[in-house]
Amino acid sequence: MTTSTHPVDERLPTGKLAALGLQHVLVMYAGAVAVPLIIGRALKLSPEDVAFLISADLFCCGLVTLIQSLGATQWFGIRLPVMMGVTFAAVGPMVAMANANPGAAGAQLIFGAIIGAGVISILIAPAVSRMLRFFPPVVTGTIIAVIGISLMRIGINWIFGNPVGPTAPTIINPEHKQWLDAAAAAASAPGSTLPAVPKDLALLPKLPNPKYADLSGVGIAAIVLASILLIARYAKGFVANISVLLGIVIGGVVATAMGLMNFDKVGKAAWFDVVTPFHFGMPVFDPLLILTMTLVMIVVMIESTGMFLALGEMTERHVDQPALSRGLRTDGLGTLIGGIFNTFPYTSFSQNVGLVAVTGVKSRFVCVAGGLILLGLGLLPKMAALVESLPTVVLGGAGLVMFGMVAATGIRILGGVDFKHNRFNALIVAISIGVGMIPLIAPNFKQWMPHGLHPLIESGILLASISAVLLNLFFNGASSDSREAIEAAKQAEAH
Fold this sequence. Notes:
The chain is mostly helical. The chain has one domain.
Protein backbone atom coordinates (compact mmCIF):
# COMPACT_ATOMS: atom_id res chain seq x y z
CA MET A 1 0.00 0.00 0.00
CA THR A 2 1.42 3.36 -1.02
CA THR A 3 0.58 6.74 0.36
CA SER A 4 0.85 9.79 -1.85
CA THR A 5 2.74 12.82 -0.54
CA HIS A 6 0.85 16.08 -0.39
CA PRO A 7 2.39 18.68 -2.78
CA VAL A 8 3.14 20.92 0.24
CA ASP A 9 5.31 18.20 1.78
CA GLU A 10 7.00 17.12 -1.47
CA ARG A 11 10.82 17.10 -1.30
CA LEU A 12 12.17 18.18 -4.68
CA PRO A 13 15.71 17.44 -5.98
CA THR A 14 18.37 19.59 -4.32
CA GLY A 15 19.27 21.54 -7.47
CA LYS A 16 15.65 22.41 -8.19
CA LEU A 17 15.09 23.39 -4.54
CA ALA A 18 18.10 25.73 -4.64
CA ALA A 19 17.00 27.39 -7.90
CA LEU A 20 13.40 27.86 -6.78
CA GLY A 21 14.53 29.03 -3.32
CA LEU A 22 16.78 31.65 -4.94
CA GLN A 23 13.78 32.86 -6.95
CA HIS A 24 11.87 33.48 -3.73
CA VAL A 25 14.84 35.34 -2.23
CA LEU A 26 15.23 37.60 -5.27
CA VAL A 27 11.51 38.44 -5.32
CA MET A 28 11.56 39.64 -1.70
CA TYR A 29 15.11 41.03 -1.51
CA ALA A 30 14.37 44.68 -2.37
CA GLY A 31 11.53 44.87 0.13
CA ALA A 32 13.56 43.11 2.81
CA VAL A 33 16.53 45.50 2.72
CA ALA A 34 14.44 48.68 2.40
CA VAL A 35 13.34 48.76 6.05
CA PRO A 36 16.82 48.52 7.67
CA LEU A 37 18.01 51.23 5.27
CA ILE A 38 15.12 53.51 6.25
CA ILE A 39 15.41 52.96 10.01
CA GLY A 40 19.22 52.95 10.08
CA ARG A 41 19.38 56.30 8.34
CA ALA A 42 16.53 57.71 10.44
CA LEU A 43 18.59 56.78 13.52
CA LYS A 44 21.59 58.56 11.93
CA LEU A 45 23.72 55.44 12.40
CA SER A 46 27.13 55.02 10.80
CA PRO A 47 27.32 53.22 7.42
CA GLU A 48 28.85 50.23 9.21
CA ASP A 49 25.92 50.02 11.64
CA VAL A 50 23.39 50.37 8.81
CA ALA A 51 25.16 47.51 7.02
CA PHE A 52 24.94 45.49 10.24
CA LEU A 53 21.16 46.10 10.35
CA ILE A 54 20.89 44.75 6.79
CA SER A 55 22.88 41.62 7.70
CA ALA A 56 20.81 41.08 10.84
CA ASP A 57 17.60 41.54 8.85
CA LEU A 58 18.54 38.98 6.18
CA PHE A 59 19.71 36.52 8.84
CA CYS A 60 16.44 36.79 10.79
CA CYS A 61 14.38 36.63 7.57
CA GLY A 62 16.00 33.26 6.94
CA LEU A 63 15.62 32.01 10.51
CA VAL A 64 11.94 32.95 10.83
CA THR A 65 11.20 31.55 7.35
CA LEU A 66 12.62 28.19 8.47
CA ILE A 67 10.44 28.22 11.60
CA GLN A 68 7.32 29.16 9.62
CA SER A 69 7.86 26.63 6.80
CA LEU A 70 9.32 23.68 8.73
CA GLY A 71 7.44 24.20 11.98
CA ALA A 72 8.87 24.20 15.49
CA THR A 73 7.00 22.22 18.17
CA GLN A 74 3.21 22.21 18.18
CA TRP A 75 3.08 25.96 18.77
CA PHE A 76 4.95 27.55 15.88
CA GLY A 77 4.98 27.29 12.11
CA ILE A 78 2.09 27.08 9.66
CA ARG A 79 4.09 24.55 7.58
CA LEU A 80 3.23 26.10 4.22
CA PRO A 81 5.49 27.68 1.55
CA VAL A 82 5.86 31.03 3.32
CA MET A 83 8.73 33.53 3.12
CA MET A 84 8.99 35.88 6.08
CA GLY A 85 10.23 39.45 5.89
CA VAL A 86 10.04 42.78 7.69
CA THR A 87 6.74 44.62 7.41
CA PHE A 88 6.39 48.17 6.09
CA ALA A 89 3.49 48.70 8.50
CA ALA A 90 5.90 49.28 11.39
CA VAL A 91 8.09 51.81 9.55
CA GLY A 92 6.07 54.90 10.51
CA PRO A 93 6.18 54.34 14.29
CA MET A 94 9.85 53.30 14.17
CA VAL A 95 10.85 56.39 12.17
CA ALA A 96 9.01 58.55 14.74
CA MET A 97 10.94 56.85 17.55
CA ALA A 98 14.21 57.28 15.65
CA ASN A 99 13.62 60.98 14.96
CA ALA A 100 12.90 61.62 18.64
CA ASN A 101 15.87 59.54 19.86
CA PRO A 102 18.66 59.20 17.26
CA GLY A 103 21.67 56.95 17.68
CA ALA A 104 22.13 53.90 19.89
CA ALA A 105 19.65 55.23 22.50
CA GLY A 106 16.90 55.28 19.88
CA ALA A 107 17.85 51.80 18.68
CA GLN A 108 17.54 50.47 22.24
CA LEU A 109 14.06 51.97 22.55
CA ILE A 110 12.96 50.59 19.16
CA PHE A 111 14.25 47.08 19.82
CA GLY A 112 12.78 47.11 23.34
CA ALA A 113 9.38 47.97 21.86
CA ILE A 114 9.77 45.22 19.23
CA ILE A 115 10.70 42.58 21.82
CA GLY A 116 7.77 43.56 24.05
CA ALA A 117 5.35 43.52 21.11
CA GLY A 118 6.72 40.14 20.00
CA VAL A 119 6.03 38.57 23.40
CA ILE A 120 2.49 40.02 23.52
CA SER A 121 1.83 38.94 19.92
CA ILE A 122 2.73 35.33 20.76
CA LEU A 123 0.24 35.39 23.64
CA ILE A 124 -2.65 37.03 21.75
CA ALA A 125 -2.20 35.19 18.42
CA PRO A 126 -5.17 32.82 18.95
CA ALA A 127 -7.44 35.77 19.78
CA VAL A 128 -6.24 37.80 16.78
CA SER A 129 -7.12 34.93 14.46
CA ARG A 130 -10.74 35.45 15.53
CA MET A 131 -10.74 39.26 15.08
CA LEU A 132 -11.27 39.39 11.31
CA ARG A 133 -14.82 40.65 11.72
CA PHE A 134 -13.41 43.93 13.06
CA PHE A 135 -11.40 44.39 9.85
CA PRO A 136 -13.81 44.46 6.89
CA PRO A 137 -12.58 45.81 3.53
CA VAL A 138 -13.42 49.42 4.43
CA VAL A 139 -11.02 49.19 7.41
CA THR A 140 -8.27 47.07 5.82
CA GLY A 141 -8.24 49.08 2.59
CA THR A 142 -8.03 52.40 4.45
CA ILE A 143 -5.18 51.25 6.69
CA ILE A 144 -3.11 49.91 3.80
CA ALA A 145 -3.73 53.04 1.71
CA VAL A 146 -2.46 55.22 4.58
CA ILE A 147 0.59 52.96 5.01
CA GLY A 148 1.47 53.50 1.36
CA ILE A 149 0.83 57.25 1.43
CA SER A 150 2.94 57.64 4.58
CA LEU A 151 5.83 55.71 3.06
CA MET A 152 5.80 57.74 -0.17
CA ARG A 153 7.39 60.61 1.73
CA ILE A 154 10.45 58.43 2.32
CA GLY A 155 10.76 57.49 -1.35
CA ILE A 156 10.45 61.12 -2.46
CA ASN A 157 13.10 62.25 0.05
CA TRP A 158 15.37 59.52 -1.27
CA ILE A 159 15.04 60.94 -4.80
CA PHE A 160 15.86 64.52 -3.86
CA GLY A 161 18.29 63.72 -1.06
CA ASN A 162 18.11 62.72 2.57
CA PRO A 163 15.93 65.05 4.64
CA VAL A 164 18.95 65.70 6.88
CA GLY A 165 22.62 66.30 6.39
CA PRO A 166 24.40 67.64 3.31
CA THR A 167 21.46 67.00 1.01
CA ALA A 168 18.84 68.94 2.96
CA PRO A 169 16.92 71.63 0.98
CA THR A 170 18.66 74.39 2.92
CA ILE A 171 21.96 74.63 4.77
CA ILE A 172 23.44 76.91 7.40
CA ASN A 173 25.28 79.91 5.98
CA PRO A 174 29.00 79.27 6.67
CA GLU A 175 29.56 82.98 7.46
CA HIS A 176 26.84 82.91 10.10
CA LYS A 177 28.31 79.78 11.67
CA GLN A 178 31.78 81.35 11.70
CA TRP A 179 30.39 84.44 13.48
CA LEU A 180 28.57 82.35 16.10
CA ASP A 181 31.65 80.22 16.76
CA ALA A 182 33.74 83.39 17.21
CA ALA A 183 31.16 84.86 19.59
CA ALA A 184 31.09 81.65 21.64
CA ALA A 185 34.90 81.59 21.84
CA ALA A 186 35.05 85.23 22.91
CA ALA A 187 32.38 84.70 25.57
CA SER A 188 34.24 81.72 27.03
CA ALA A 189 37.65 83.46 27.08
CA PRO A 190 39.18 84.17 30.53
CA GLY A 191 38.15 87.57 31.86
CA SER A 192 35.46 88.06 29.21
CA THR A 193 32.50 90.20 30.23
CA LEU A 194 30.36 88.94 27.35
CA PRO A 195 27.37 86.77 28.33
CA ALA A 196 27.75 83.08 27.54
CA VAL A 197 26.03 81.72 24.44
CA PRO A 198 22.71 80.18 25.55
CA LYS A 199 22.66 76.39 25.72
CA ASP A 200 21.32 74.64 22.58
CA LEU A 201 21.37 77.87 20.58
CA ALA A 202 21.46 76.87 16.92
CA LEU A 203 21.33 78.60 13.57
CA LEU A 204 18.39 78.04 11.25
CA PRO A 205 19.37 76.64 7.84
CA LYS A 206 18.27 79.25 5.30
CA LEU A 207 20.84 79.09 2.53
CA PRO A 208 19.57 77.16 -0.53
CA ASN A 209 21.56 73.95 -0.96
CA PRO A 210 22.81 73.50 -4.54
CA LYS A 211 23.22 69.75 -3.95
CA TYR A 212 19.54 69.28 -3.13
CA ALA A 213 17.46 67.77 -5.97
CA ASP A 214 20.55 67.71 -8.16
CA LEU A 215 19.50 66.86 -11.71
CA SER A 216 22.06 64.05 -12.01
CA GLY A 217 20.55 62.33 -8.96
CA VAL A 218 17.00 62.92 -10.14
CA GLY A 219 18.03 61.53 -13.52
CA ILE A 220 19.32 58.31 -11.94
CA ALA A 221 16.06 57.91 -10.00
CA ALA A 222 14.17 58.40 -13.27
CA ILE A 223 16.31 55.71 -14.96
CA VAL A 224 15.55 53.29 -12.11
CA LEU A 225 11.83 54.02 -12.35
CA ALA A 226 11.80 53.71 -16.16
CA SER A 227 13.73 50.42 -15.96
CA ILE A 228 11.22 48.95 -13.50
CA LEU A 229 8.29 50.00 -15.69
CA LEU A 230 9.85 48.62 -18.89
CA ILE A 231 10.76 45.30 -17.26
CA ALA A 232 7.29 44.98 -15.71
CA ARG A 233 5.68 45.78 -19.07
CA TYR A 234 7.70 43.65 -21.46
CA ALA A 235 9.31 40.90 -19.38
CA LYS A 236 7.51 37.68 -18.53
CA GLY A 237 7.23 35.39 -15.52
CA PHE A 238 10.01 35.46 -12.96
CA VAL A 239 11.93 38.36 -14.56
CA ALA A 240 8.83 40.54 -14.34
CA ASN A 241 8.45 39.58 -10.67
CA ILE A 242 11.91 40.93 -9.81
CA SER A 243 11.55 44.16 -11.80
CA VAL A 244 12.20 46.31 -8.70
CA LEU A 245 15.42 44.47 -7.85
CA LEU A 246 16.63 44.66 -11.46
CA GLY A 247 15.82 48.38 -11.54
CA ILE A 248 17.97 48.91 -8.44
CA VAL A 249 20.83 46.96 -10.04
CA ILE A 250 20.60 49.09 -13.21
CA GLY A 251 20.56 52.26 -11.08
CA GLY A 252 23.62 51.07 -9.18
CA VAL A 253 25.51 50.47 -12.44
CA VAL A 254 24.59 53.95 -13.73
CA ALA A 255 25.53 55.60 -10.42
CA THR A 256 28.89 53.80 -10.47
CA ALA A 257 29.55 54.92 -14.04
CA MET A 258 28.82 58.52 -13.00
CA GLY A 259 31.17 58.31 -10.04
CA LEU A 260 28.36 58.60 -7.47
CA MET A 261 28.90 55.14 -5.99
CA ASN A 262 32.13 53.59 -4.80
CA PHE A 263 32.97 50.27 -3.22
CA ASP A 264 35.42 51.35 -0.51
CA LYS A 265 33.11 50.17 2.30
CA VAL A 266 32.54 46.87 0.48
CA GLY A 267 36.30 46.32 0.28
CA LYS A 268 36.75 47.01 4.00
CA ALA A 269 33.87 44.73 5.08
CA ALA A 270 34.62 41.17 6.19
CA TRP A 271 33.68 38.18 4.09
CA PHE A 272 32.07 36.41 7.03
CA ASP A 273 30.75 37.54 10.39
CA VAL A 274 28.24 36.30 12.92
CA VAL A 275 25.15 38.37 13.70
CA THR A 276 25.24 39.08 17.43
CA PRO A 277 22.28 39.97 19.66
CA PHE A 278 21.95 43.37 21.38
CA HIS A 279 24.53 44.98 19.12
CA PHE A 280 23.44 48.47 20.22
CA GLY A 281 23.23 47.64 23.93
CA MET A 282 20.49 46.24 26.12
CA PRO A 283 16.97 47.16 24.98
CA VAL A 284 14.90 49.73 26.83
CA PHE A 285 11.30 48.71 27.51
CA ASP A 286 8.98 51.70 27.34
CA PRO A 287 5.35 50.61 27.98
CA LEU A 288 3.83 53.14 25.60
CA LEU A 289 6.23 52.26 22.78
CA ILE A 290 5.46 48.57 23.34
CA LEU A 291 1.73 49.36 23.12
CA THR A 292 2.32 51.28 19.90
CA MET A 293 4.21 48.39 18.31
CA THR A 294 1.62 45.87 19.56
CA LEU A 295 -1.15 47.77 17.77
CA VAL A 296 0.96 47.57 14.61
CA MET A 297 1.41 43.83 15.10
CA ILE A 298 -2.35 43.29 15.42
CA VAL A 299 -2.82 44.91 12.00
CA VAL A 300 0.08 42.86 10.61
CA MET A 301 -1.36 39.59 11.94
CA ILE A 302 -4.77 40.38 10.46
CA GLU A 303 -3.07 40.74 7.07
CA SER A 304 -1.11 37.52 7.67
CA THR A 305 -4.38 35.72 8.34
CA GLY A 306 -5.55 36.56 4.84
CA MET A 307 -2.22 35.46 3.38
CA PHE A 308 -2.35 32.10 5.14
CA LEU A 309 -5.94 31.45 4.05
CA ALA A 310 -5.11 32.37 0.46
CA LEU A 311 -2.06 30.11 0.53
CA GLY A 312 -4.13 27.28 1.97
CA GLU A 313 -6.53 27.52 -0.99
CA MET A 314 -3.62 27.78 -3.44
CA THR A 315 -1.87 24.69 -2.08
CA GLU A 316 -5.09 22.75 -1.40
CA ARG A 317 -4.19 22.33 2.26
CA HIS A 318 -6.92 23.32 4.71
CA VAL A 319 -5.81 25.97 7.20
CA ASP A 320 -7.76 25.29 10.39
CA GLN A 321 -7.85 27.40 13.54
CA PRO A 322 -4.87 25.66 15.24
CA ALA A 323 -2.74 26.05 12.09
CA LEU A 324 -3.72 29.71 11.82
CA SER A 325 -2.74 30.27 15.45
CA ARG A 326 0.63 28.58 14.85
CA GLY A 327 1.28 30.86 11.88
CA LEU A 328 0.37 34.03 13.78
CA ARG A 329 2.41 32.94 16.82
CA THR A 330 5.37 32.70 14.45
CA ASP A 331 4.80 36.32 13.41
CA GLY A 332 5.13 37.16 17.09
CA LEU A 333 8.13 34.86 17.60
CA GLY A 334 9.83 36.34 14.53
CA THR A 335 9.27 39.82 15.91
CA LEU A 336 10.72 38.76 19.28
CA ILE A 337 13.77 37.24 17.54
CA GLY A 338 14.06 40.40 15.42
CA GLY A 339 14.21 42.63 18.49
CA ILE A 340 16.89 40.44 20.07
CA PHE A 341 19.04 40.44 16.91
CA ASN A 342 18.62 44.17 16.20
CA THR A 343 16.03 43.98 13.45
CA PHE A 344 12.30 44.48 12.98
CA PRO A 345 8.75 43.00 13.07
CA TYR A 346 8.17 40.08 10.68
CA THR A 347 5.26 38.90 8.58
CA SER A 348 4.58 36.75 5.51
CA PHE A 349 5.62 38.38 2.23
CA SER A 350 2.72 38.61 -0.20
CA GLN A 351 5.09 38.80 -3.20
CA ASN A 352 6.17 35.27 -2.47
CA VAL A 353 2.61 34.05 -2.09
CA GLY A 354 2.08 35.39 -5.62
CA LEU A 355 5.19 33.52 -6.80
CA VAL A 356 3.70 30.24 -5.56
CA ALA A 357 0.70 30.93 -7.81
CA VAL A 358 2.93 31.86 -10.78
CA THR A 359 5.25 28.84 -10.56
CA GLY A 360 2.67 26.31 -9.41
CA VAL A 361 5.28 24.82 -7.03
CA LYS A 362 3.58 24.18 -3.69
CA SER A 363 6.40 22.52 -1.76
CA ARG A 364 7.22 24.25 1.52
CA PHE A 365 10.77 22.98 1.22
CA VAL A 366 11.36 25.52 -1.55
CA CYS A 367 10.90 28.23 1.09
CA VAL A 368 13.11 26.24 3.44
CA ALA A 369 15.83 26.48 0.77
CA GLY A 370 15.10 30.21 0.45
CA GLY A 371 15.43 30.56 4.22
CA LEU A 372 18.83 28.85 4.17
CA ILE A 373 20.01 31.20 1.39
CA LEU A 374 18.89 34.22 3.44
CA LEU A 375 20.73 32.87 6.48
CA GLY A 376 23.87 32.64 4.39
CA LEU A 377 23.46 36.17 3.02
CA GLY A 378 23.05 37.47 6.57
CA LEU A 379 26.50 36.10 7.40
CA LEU A 380 28.19 37.95 4.50
CA PRO A 381 28.92 41.56 5.57
CA LYS A 382 30.17 42.43 2.08
CA MET A 383 26.66 41.94 0.69
CA ALA A 384 25.20 44.25 3.33
CA ALA A 385 27.93 46.85 2.69
CA LEU A 386 27.15 46.73 -1.04
CA VAL A 387 23.47 47.49 -0.39
CA GLU A 388 24.34 50.25 2.07
CA SER A 389 26.63 51.84 -0.54
CA LEU A 390 23.75 52.43 -2.94
CA PRO A 391 23.04 56.17 -3.29
CA THR A 392 19.63 57.18 -1.97
CA VAL A 393 18.62 58.40 -5.43
CA VAL A 394 18.80 54.80 -6.69
CA LEU A 395 16.58 53.62 -3.86
CA GLY A 396 14.22 56.55 -4.41
CA GLY A 397 13.24 55.45 -7.90
CA ALA A 398 12.47 51.97 -6.57
CA GLY A 399 10.79 53.39 -3.46
CA LEU A 400 8.17 55.17 -5.56
CA VAL A 401 7.16 51.78 -6.96
CA MET A 402 7.40 49.75 -3.72
CA PHE A 403 5.56 52.24 -1.54
CA GLY A 404 3.15 53.32 -4.26
CA MET A 405 2.10 49.70 -4.78
CA VAL A 406 1.17 49.51 -1.12
CA ALA A 407 -1.14 52.51 -1.53
CA ALA A 408 -2.53 51.02 -4.76
CA THR A 409 -3.35 47.79 -2.92
CA GLY A 410 -5.37 49.75 -0.37
CA ILE A 411 -7.23 51.51 -3.18
CA ARG A 412 -7.92 48.15 -4.85
CA ILE A 413 -9.42 46.77 -1.64
CA LEU A 414 -11.54 49.91 -1.21
CA GLY A 415 -12.78 49.36 -4.77
CA GLY A 416 -14.80 46.41 -3.47
CA VAL A 417 -16.45 48.43 -0.68
CA ASP A 418 -20.15 49.26 -0.97
CA PHE A 419 -20.22 53.05 -1.10
CA LYS A 420 -23.46 53.24 -3.09
CA HIS A 421 -25.82 51.69 -0.54
CA ASN A 422 -23.84 52.48 2.62
CA ARG A 423 -23.11 56.19 2.91
CA PHE A 424 -21.24 55.62 6.18
CA ASN A 425 -18.36 53.84 4.45
CA ALA A 426 -17.32 57.04 2.68
CA LEU A 427 -17.24 58.84 6.04
CA ILE A 428 -15.08 56.10 7.56
CA VAL A 429 -12.54 56.31 4.73
CA ALA A 430 -12.54 60.11 4.51
CA ILE A 431 -12.10 60.76 8.22
CA SER A 432 -9.57 57.96 8.79
CA ILE A 433 -7.33 59.04 5.90
CA GLY A 434 -7.58 62.64 7.16
CA VAL A 435 -6.59 61.57 10.68
CA GLY A 436 -3.73 59.52 9.24
CA MET A 437 -2.39 62.58 7.41
CA ILE A 438 -2.16 64.74 10.56
CA PRO A 439 1.42 63.72 11.52
CA LEU A 440 2.56 64.20 7.91
CA ILE A 441 1.00 67.63 7.38
CA ALA A 442 1.31 69.02 10.91
CA PRO A 443 4.16 67.12 12.62
CA ASN A 444 4.21 69.54 15.59
CA PHE A 445 0.51 69.12 16.45
CA LYS A 446 1.43 67.21 19.59
CA GLN A 447 3.56 69.92 21.21
CA TRP A 448 1.05 70.65 24.00
CA MET A 449 0.17 67.02 24.66
CA PRO A 450 1.83 64.86 27.34
CA HIS A 451 5.23 63.72 26.14
CA GLY A 452 4.41 60.12 26.99
CA LEU A 453 1.67 60.08 24.35
CA HIS A 454 3.94 61.26 21.53
CA PRO A 455 5.09 57.81 20.34
CA LEU A 456 1.47 56.70 20.12
CA ILE A 457 0.25 59.66 18.07
CA GLU A 458 3.30 60.34 15.91
CA SER A 459 2.36 57.58 13.48
CA GLY A 460 -0.34 58.36 10.96
CA ILE A 461 -0.70 54.62 10.34
CA LEU A 462 -1.69 53.96 13.94
CA LEU A 463 -4.02 56.94 14.08
CA ALA A 464 -5.72 55.85 10.87
CA SER A 465 -6.01 52.24 12.10
CA ILE A 466 -7.63 53.24 15.39
CA SER A 467 -9.93 55.70 13.62
CA ALA A 468 -11.05 53.20 10.96
CA VAL A 469 -11.76 50.40 13.44
CA LEU A 470 -13.70 52.64 15.86
CA LEU A 471 -15.68 54.45 13.14
CA ASN A 472 -16.59 51.15 11.51
CA LEU A 473 -17.83 49.79 14.83
CA PHE A 474 -19.83 52.99 15.39
CA PHE A 475 -21.48 53.07 11.96
CA ASN A 476 -21.57 49.42 10.88
CA GLY A 477 -21.00 47.34 13.99
CA ALA A 478 -19.01 44.11 13.95
CA SER A 479 -20.44 41.72 11.42
CA SER A 480 -20.51 38.07 12.36
CA ASP A 481 -19.78 37.21 8.70
CA SER A 482 -16.05 37.57 8.19
CA ARG A 483 -15.93 36.38 4.55
CA GLU A 484 -15.49 39.91 3.17
CA ALA A 485 -12.76 40.60 5.71
CA ILE A 486 -10.96 37.43 4.66
CA GLU A 487 -11.08 38.44 1.01
CA ALA A 488 -9.74 41.91 1.88
CA ALA A 489 -6.93 40.45 3.93
CA LYS A 490 -6.03 38.12 1.05
CA GLN A 491 -5.43 41.14 -1.17
CA ALA A 492 -3.30 42.95 1.40
CA GLU A 493 0.23 43.48 0.14
CA ALA A 494 1.41 46.05 2.63
CA HIS A 495 4.78 44.44 3.08
